[in-house]
Give the backbone structure.
Amino acid sequence: MVLLPPDSPRRRDRSREEAARKQRARFARDVGDEHGQAWAHQTPRPRRSKFTLFVASIFVAFAVLGALPLVLHDGDSQLIRPNCESPAVAAGPARIEPGTNFAWQAAGPPQGPYVLALDAATVTGPAGGPVTPDTGRVLSAPITLTGCRSAQTLAAGPDNKGTHEVALFRRSGTGWARVAVALLDVS
């Protein structure tokens, strides 16, 4: 099967048009259609454009309701925006299956270092690491927040169901202080 582009007013094949006109005239004569015989000798009328007012209104509605919010959205596909004022942590997606991965990202002032832990109320250890949590596990070694935000990082999720805490700790003086928490639902 050969696929040909549709006929357009710019590409006209005169011999093809003449053959179609003759075929219409012969068919009208064979069936005794006087009205068809009269129309067979006229050139066919050009088709109206399929771009109607209705199609134009749908296009405008899509542009206003769908495309513009996507283009004008100031998100950068990260979990959290840079914030040099106060520490924050985000985990996503908010609900995961047991044992599946989740992403985390921290933001805050560049003065650190910071440690991220899962299900830990406190952590202990030197500023350079290694850091030990009281319960749970550490998700990152001590990091600094360059540009007031860490890189988005994947971590293995908990194996047990329930609500878990992803906590951000900041080194202050002689110990680690818990400065932000994000909840992670495992179900």
The radius of gyration is 34 Å. The domain at 88-186 is CATH 2.60.40.1930 (Immunoglobulin-like).
